Prior knowledge:
Largest sheet of chain A: 7 strands, mixed
CATH architecture of the largest domain in chain A: 3-Layer(aba) Sandwich
CATH superfamily of the largest domain in chain A: Type I PLP-dependent aspartate aminotransferase-like (Major domain)
Helix content of chain A: 25-40%
Oligomer: homotetramer
Distance between the termini of chain A: 36 Å
Radius of gyration of chain A: 21 Å
Strand order of the largest sheet of chain A: 4-12-11-10-7-5-6
Number of strands of chain A: 17
Amino acid sequence: METFSRLESEVRSYCRGWPTLFTRARGSRVYDHTGRGYLDFFAGAGALNYGHNNPTLKTALLDYLGSDSIVHSLDAATTAKRDFLDTFEEVILKPRGLDYKVQFPGPTGTNAVEAALKLARKVTGRETVISFTNSFHGMTLGALAVTGNSMKRGGAGVPLNHTVTMPFDNYMDGQVPDFLWLRSLLEDSGSGLDRPAAVIVETVQGEGGINVARADWLRGLAELCREHELLLIVDDIQMGCGRTGPFFSFEEAGIVPDIVTLSKSISGYGLPMALTLFKRELDVWEPGEHNGTFRGFNPAFLTATVALNTYWRDDSLERETLAKGQLITERLEAIAAEHAEAGASVRGRGMACGLVLPGEGDARRVCAEAFERGLLMETSGPEDEVAKLLPPLTTSVAEMEEGLDILAESVRAAVRTPQPA
Amino acid sequence: METFSRLESEVRSYCRGWPTLFTRARGSRVYDHTGRGYLDFFAGAGALNYGHNNPTLKTALLDYLGSDSIVHSLDAATTAKRDFLDTFEEVILKPRGLDYKVQFPGPTGTNAVEAALKLARKVTGRETVISFTNSFHGMTLGALAVTGNSMKRGGAGVPLNHTVTMPFDNYMDGQVPDFLWLRSLLEDSGSGLDRPAAVIVETVQGEGGINVARADWLRGLAELCREHELLLIVDDIQMGCGRTGPFFSFEEAGIVPDIVTLSKSISGYGLPMALTLFKRELDVWEPGEHNGTFRGFNPAFLTATVALNTYWRDDSLERETLAKGQLITERLEAIAAEHAEAGASVRGRGMACGLVLPGEGDARRVCAEAFERGLLMETSGPEDEVAKLLPPLTTSVAEMEEGLDILAESVRAAVRTPQPA
Amino acid sequence: METFSRLESEVRSYCRGWPTLFTRARGSRVYDHTGRGYLDFFAGAGALNYGHNNPTLKTALLDYLGSDSIVHSLDAATTAKRDFLDTFEEVILKPRGLDYKVQFPGPTGTNAVEAALKLARKVTGRETVISFTNSFHGMTLGALAVTGNSMKRGGAGVPLNHTVTMPFDNYMDGQVPDFLWLRSLLEDSGSGLDRPAAVIVETVQGEGGINVARADWLRGLAELCREHELLLIVDDIQMGCGRTGPFFSFEEAGIVPDIVTLSKSISGYGLPMALTLFKRELDVWEPGEHNGTFRGFNPAFLTATVALNTYWRDDSLERETLAKGQLITERLEAIAAEHAEAGASVRGRGMACGLVLPGEGDARRVCAEAFERGLLMETSGPEDEVAKLLPPLTTSVAEMEEGLDILAESVRAAVRTPQPA
Amino acid sequence: METFSRLESEVRSYCRGWPTLFTRARGSRVYDHTGRGYLDFFAGAGALNYGHNNPTLKTALLDYLGSDSIVHSLDAATTAKRDFLDTFEEVILKPRGLDYKVQFPGPTGTNAVEAALKLARKVTGRETVISFTNSFHGMTLGALAVTGNSMKRGGAGVPLNHTVTMPFDNYMDGQVPDFLWLRSLLEDSGSGLDRPAAVIVETVQGEGGINVARADWLRGLAELCREHELLLIVDDIQMGCGRTGPFFSFEEAGIVPDIVTLSKSISGYGLPMALTLFKRELDVWEPGEHNGTFRGFNPAFLTATVALNTYWRDDSLERETLAKGQLITERLEAIAAEHAEAGASVRGRGMACGLVLPGEGDARRVCAEAFERGLLMETSGPEDEVAKLLPPLTTSVAEMEEGLDILAESVRAAVRTPQPA
Lengths: 421, 421, 421, 421
């Protein structure tokens, strides 16, 4: 580990909480250099929904690479890209009635968000974008400006402008009618809110603490955008690709965003890939107006295509995810009940779940205890007050039970005395 | 090809100039779906310095993936990352006397630039960054603000601030002493230039038209930065990894930048990867202050390590690159001489070369003719007035001659009548 | 009038609603070139609290000018300035226990606001300033950024940044607890609100529609600022100098702002003058860091001194103002009751009063009818839905009744049929 | 003087260099409370071109005020405003062939500049404004962003954006062809300069150190603006109203700016007043889009009218100013020759003159010595290296000689030993 402290920037983070050297992985299990295995309830922050080194995808990937197929192509036309586009249309877009054009920005979430924001501003000719409390959209300047976390914002070194923060669903504990504030601002020409270009929202805020927006709230937001001609951007980077059950997390609410960002699990194998989707009529880009060296990383297109064919041609994965999500929730509720004095509670949708432990440091201690017991989890929320569970969707029920047992023990070990919030 | 026009955003670009479907590639040769081969003098815009599907790297990559090694790890510690760091230190940093810390931002060039800019502003507590005419640093808002191209800047949809553009070397045709303007601004408390945090520069501007900064100019810039305590950022994304001969393009000038960005060919195989390097004392990041999902893409660390071991343990690649660069330059000079009436001229360093054809549309027509004849090249420069050559460094002399023959023919076909600039 | 349309910019405004040529004025009465008199219930938008050409001030001013006393002195020391400072301290600051330093910015309200914002940012090292819905603070870029009106904001031609708008008292009709939203943002490190430098507020929003903040709300705001170490700026440009009764409008709430802006009636004679007051410990200005040509306009210091001596050495003016305010309110309530079907209602504090007429165009028509009948009034509010009354504080009860009679007639003439909002 | 240190902000400046209490003034002579007289070669920073308490203007002003004429009218129509507009058209605009509309912003220079910048951005739909090294345009955020002085810029507390600084005439000592840099940026789509809305320039930079732009340079600038459709704003606040000879300082160059700002001496009596003039076709303001409480300060309109009638109906003042300027220059040249070892030199046009004393602190010491000897002068330039002379234009030749004699002595007293720049 000395290599890392000598050579890698202090910005490194996860290696501090998990002080070991990982070497191999398969499915929901990761192994370190001593051969010790860990159950992975983190899944690359949602980038490994189909598990590590998924065998179906692996076979296809080795074939692809072994046959000297195109790896890197910028935005030239390739067979792998064509196949991905056709499959994405057939398996994902058409069945859901979505007439989206597909943009391949640089292969990271923040690049997809930057493309979305640029397009929204270009289309509308307006600058302001509305984001929500405790949102997370990325680290480059445009995406960081719509991200809530003050430590991360402080890293910008310049003021982050052209954005306005609004209360996410239930932010003020039900004391305020939904959208009363935003609607008031939009309808009042003296409010001081410059007419916005767009709203960007996560349906479930992963980094923000597994804050779940109700379907009603999302529909209200979509309606408000429609009324005021604001573009609705759903950032589905962490919650898309089946994390909450359906392929897109917004399907449950029955809304159709104007722009959607996808990344993390879209390649299905942990290969960098990102997409910005938007309604056909919004495709006002000039050729080359937004570019990037790795926007044509074909192995990712290949595994993405295989993942779509394997997991999304029927609804079995979706049903399993909802069932497993139900299982997790029940176990978490039991844990929370056991620690009611510590203020424990549960949040989540599908297989994006959180155990809220408001006592200072509690959630961090739980994750540390879990690591000791062979379970990888991270915290989230503005005060790291949520122990977050994002297991691979392909985690078996037995593994799930094993991990939740470890979690239950870890909470017992970490949360000894009641600590008020 | 209909798939692309139906489903992919109008932002797509290269597929318009190369209207075919690519399937396989090896070394400097790419093949389309009809089996036709093309010599690739573009090399993924410099991301494929060791050629397509380089066999040494390929073997290692297939082994790595085949053995279920870690693919995706965020910034957890992995064997592949440790090996990369140790090798990078041993093969690259130590022999050059560079005491840099290494940051892994998201795996694209623009992410590396954003990290560099954020760090420079954080360290200095200042906002302004100086960039140069015809610079290219990326498409996310921070990087776009230091990019010169007006079409790309216009895509931002918000004003791009906190930056000041300065003349690149020879921008005003030698009519102005180097740095007279910048130095005047820095030394005059009434100049209106807020004290800058940093200067960001490419040693050779690839997208800007293969504009080559002289070593003297770079030394002058480094000296000016030192005098005024500005951080010097060299964006070596396109010109690093041996493109101009040495591993870092700034080695020739004998300068030591405070911050260096690398991407494109650092993985050596077209796998997305990016690094931000900086002097040890600048490492003021908080843990997690800049993050990103794909900053731990281990297959790229693996191929990067193999590439360093294969190509950079001695100076043979560097010497070959310089020799081939000499060959290209001579051939281009001959072509330029043949088209002196069209104002043709040659620019370049190492294997980053350009044939300047100031007649409107000439360079674009040359590239179109070259494509017809089986050679892939792109234009660069603000008016697309430069036919750019970035062949893989591993291109054989025979392939080089073949490509240059095609180029010579293409110029003859495209540049028929003298067109004054 | 042809001169104005030929030579004066289209930006001119009041001359459109009052299409006559004014020549002379005395007390609350203004005369046009035909000799027709008008009761002035507008008082230079609050700049003439002691009436036009107040005789006590006039005598002193003529003496001053007649004796070749200093007119213009930048910020050199003059007798008139010294006398003003000493009197301001003795008559205003000391009795109220206020230990403020006095800055003389350029002699307009917007200059005073700019100085306040600059100082708040300089002292705290933070950028964000919080303002309120329907606020009005001025037209220069800094002040405009904290102004709510969208038409005026649109005139900036650049995005207005570094500010956040918050709901003014009762903005959401009592549906939301006071400061719930602002407090939530301040207390949540993930809210997306960068830590603010200051809050700027009017106690009664004049341009915004005579929106009156309750004393409780102001105390809550002051307490919130104290808790979170935000500077509290009260913009008392329109509501200070006795408009609401006491000299400062915030006295009633018992709060002590960190920074106060004064202008309009501070000179007492309509002479341009502005002050920025701040707590002694905030005086971190460098000499000359904020300057301006007319910040030493001595005739204004002279009349300001006389006005303080005449009107503020006892509480008689304050008591009269409150009594007249009561009279106005009662008359307005009667008018509103008569036009209940048109949704009429009354707002106000002291002698800043408004008759709300939500029917489209109603308030504007009322003012037009009033002008025809010899009464000058203007509208305010985001939709010009409020007929605003700002009579000179020195208006006699008989004049008040006369004006209110005209107003009652004008409303009857203008608001014929019920018009829902 | 204790009053000032106890009550006035540390921002006060001139009172530090002139530590006495001024009481009366007449013509070019100011008197302090001890009765001591000072020759005023500062003239309110150019606001008193016709001297203190000019008797012709004074008589008219006392009559106006004595007859209860309108003092304060916002932008209502008044006789005084009509008379000013008609006179300004007849005496100034028509004879010079200028078809300008007149805007009355708030009565300070910075307000006039803000209005000019807002209008230029609104008309063009662009944000960037070009200003020049060592420019001074005002202290509010918009005007400050086009001001060069770093100390004053630092007071903003927020980054100053949407502006680009360019070299003023002769900034780089003739080493660079005029406008080579600006022209290069404008003509190169890859330069990084976003297409500007406007250029703002002073013909002679007063605060910047009496830097004089040659007529050729101004014509070149006007031509460049015309070619690239940039609006040309001449800030004539300090150099207009005859300071350089003709009414507008740009007349000598024969250019017609698109927008002109006037303030300081426009009222002629030190009364706050400011104008923004612009070509008729640029008058796209909405009614009330830019407003301000004191934009209708009628006593200033009255004295402005009288000043125009008194001084500008023939060319005698212009001729006298040029002659006196010649006298000053000759005397300054002699002083400079006497102090050649200290690097002394002379700058100026008309009666805006400067003695450059590059030795550190020399110019400040000269002004201090001059004060001791009864002469008021200030320094200017980024390092306060210029002793600036702005005497009232009405200063007699005898007074001029008297003041220049004092100056010569003061330089001898202050600049004892040669100090290299």
